[in-house]
Structure formats: structure tokens, C-alpha cells
Design a protein that fits this description.
23% of the residues lie in helices and 31% in strands. The chain has two helices and seven strands; from the N terminus they run E-H-E-E-H-E-E-E-E. A five-stranded mixed sheet has the order 2-1-7-4-5.
Length: 77
């Protein structure tokens, strides 16, 4: 099982702050695709994923027990 935490606009798109998924050993890209297919309002464009508080690449593997944060694009000045 993995825990997924949604931040800012990602939280608004899915309608919840976090959830636990009964999956493991999937790529970050597959996780984003699952979220997009499960929540039609979710748009993965520009989203970053952190696994256990470290930014991840699309081909990184999410394992059982991991905590994944879905982080929308941020801008500042």
C-alpha cells in the first residue's frame, strides 16, 4: 500500500487531501495515469511527484510503504 498526498490545486482536482492505494511496484508515470483516469478533473501536466520527501522521476518505482506527494507547478517572484 502507498499513501498519496495531494497539495494545492491537485487537492482541488481530486476532491481530497490524501488517500491510501492498495498498489505497489509501479512507476511514477503509472501512478499519475491512474490518478488521471480515476479523477477526470485531474490534469497531470506539470505535476511533480515526491516519494518519501524526495522529488522523483517518471520512471522511478513506488514501493509498498512509500508516501507520494503530488505537487502542482509553483511560481514565484
Amino acid at each position: 500500500m502507498i499513501k498519496v498526498i495531494y497539495f494545492a490545486v491537485a487537492r482541488e482536482m481530486v476532491g481530497k487531501g490524501e488517500e491510501t492505494l492498495k498498489v505497489e511496484n509501479l512507476k511514477v508515470k503509472q501512478l499519475l495515469e491512474w490518478i488521471e483516469s480515476s479523477y477526470p478533473a485531474f490534469d497531470q501536466t506539470g505535476m511533480q511527484v515526491a516519494i518519501n520527501e524526495e522529488y522523483a522521476m517518471l520512471d522511478d518505482i513506488v514501493k509498498s510503504g512509500d508516501v507520494c506527494a503530488i505537487i502542482p507547478p509553483v511560481s514565484g517572484g
